[in-house]
Design goal:
mainly beta; 5-stranded antiparallel β-sheet; binds zinc ion; globular; 2 domains; 1 helix; OB fold (Dihydrolipoamide Acetyltransferase, E2P); 3-stranded antiparallel β-sheet; 133 residues
Length: 133
């Protein structure tokens, strides 16, 4: 695979895609097939939407435990962010120390290497939050 093609596919694959209910306008991430508010009226009508990668810290937790297979530095931050589209997304917040995080702090989603499987050399990517100020 050529490098430009790789990056095109990477960008395509690693976007935050949610679904939007055409009736009430609510946005869901992870995507839902049915809107829990509109039920039957939303079946088969949910629309794919790309969720903008900017938002702010809605709540946060400082994690002190080890997570198997993940070489996180301890302690690390796990947040729920309210994205600019209104949807809430949870994940790890990096590049900020636990004492500096605050509710309402602007953050954005960045796609990063999460872990590397040594023998097969498989690299897993996922999203993390980083400060956006
Ligand atoms: Zn709805």
């Amino acid at each position: 695979m050529t490098i430009p093609r790789y990056w095109r596919e990477f960008q395509h694959r690693y976007r935050l895609i949610g679904t939007k209910c055409p009736k009430c306008g609510r946005i869901y991430f992870p995507p839902r097939e049915v809107c829990p508010y509109c039920h039957r009226e939303s079946i088969g009508k949910m629309q794919k939407v790309e969720i903008k990668n900017t938002g702010k810290v809605y709540s946060y937790t400082v994690i002190h435990q080890d997570v198997p297979d993940f070489k996180f530095l301890k302690p690390y931050l796990f947040i729920i962010a309210e994205m600019d589209s209104g949807v809430k997304v949870s994940g790890q917040l990096v590049d900020v120390s636990p004492e500096d995080v605050r509710i309402g702090m602007p953050v954005r989603i960045s796609f990063r290497r999460i872990r590397e499987e040594d023998r097969a050399g498989i690299i897993e990517y996922g999203y993390k939050f980083i400060p956006d100020e």
